[in-house]
Design goal:
alpha+beta; Jelly Rolls; Arc Repressor Mutant, subunit A; three-stranded antiparallel β-sheet
């Protein structure tokens, strides 16, 4: 687990709130693409979640998983506001599970799972108090919460799993590995136009857009979590030069990488 947060959004308040953690902020107009998995739980109020593939109404008890690399946006209903809790998860194990479809789950309702909400409260307490070994305890609680959501999705009679077509899933895995779009098309034995059409139909993003967001997300992680220079990060991620990375980063994130603030491992909003 790399971050956790809680917010009470009152009726009529702007969303996201002004103090939304940097690196995770978004606007309703532009939406957002994350670099890690984020689990969001709505305990009070109602609102809406949108992916390129469509919108879902959210109510008290709704819990949803946001995968990395997918455009999305969500917000509370101005008439009700809402209370949200969230946690961020990242790592190769989660990437592998998502690639196999284990974490490809729709929003679920956890309003009758009292233990789920108690564990979320316990997780917040552990992260605030920092007891001995809190990182291991927090990670264990976070994985338990994730497992509860997957279990609820599998057991729900109303589960409507919209799995990615095989071509789009394979293309996504190759793009996540850093291959360029032309190489992905050649590897899968299809034309660029075929890859473009099927990938955008499945994910809502063109392959080049997806690959760009993945590289920018990796750049965010390296800027926030390492001491690598912009030039070193540009070379590692396949940019032509540091200036190429700086220009693309500024256009997408609103500031050059040299001004990107280092993020703490645990943030609350």
């Amino acid at each position: 687990m790399s971050a956790i947060g809680h917010a009470r959004i009152l009726p009529g308040m702007s969303y996201p709130p002004p103090r939304h953690p940097e690196g995770r902020a978004f606007t309703w107009e532009r939406g957002r693409v994350l670099s890690a998995f984020q689990l969001v739980a709505i305990s009070q109020g109602r609102g809406k979640l949108e992916f390129r593939s469509g919108a879902t109404r959210l109510s008290a008890g709704s819990v949803f998983l946001l995968p990395p690399g997918y455009w999305h946006r969500y917000r509370p209903d101005p008439e009700t506001g809402w209370t949200e809790d969230w946690l961020e998860l990242r790592g190769p194990t989660l990437d592998a599970w998502f690639g196999k479809g284990v974490l490809d789950v729709p929003p679920v309702h956890m309003n009758r799972r009292i233990a789920f909400w108690r564990r979320f409260a316990e997780l917040h307490h552990v992260c605030l108090m920092h007891p001995l070994g809190y990182r291991a305890v927090a990670s264990g609680l976070a994985m338990t919460l994730l497992a509860s959501v997957v279990s609820q999705s599998l057991s729900s009679a109303r589960t409507n799993k919209a799995d990615l077509p095989d071509l789009a899933r394979k293309a996504r895995e190759l793009l996540m590995q850093g291959l360029d779009v032309k190489s992905v098309a050649n590897t899968l034995g299809v034309s660029y136009l075929t890859l473009y059409r099927k990938f955008k139909q499945a994910t809502g993003l063109a392959p080049k857009e997806y690959a760009r967001e993945i590289r920018l997300a990796r750049a965010e992680d390296l800027l926030a979590g390492t001491d690598l220079s912009v030039k070193e990060i540009a070379g590692r991620l396949g940019y032509y030069s540091a200036s190429h990375l700086s220009l693309e980063f500024k256009n997408a994130r609103g500031k050059p990488p040299s001004q990107w603030a280092h993020r703490t491992q645990t943030q609350h909003r």
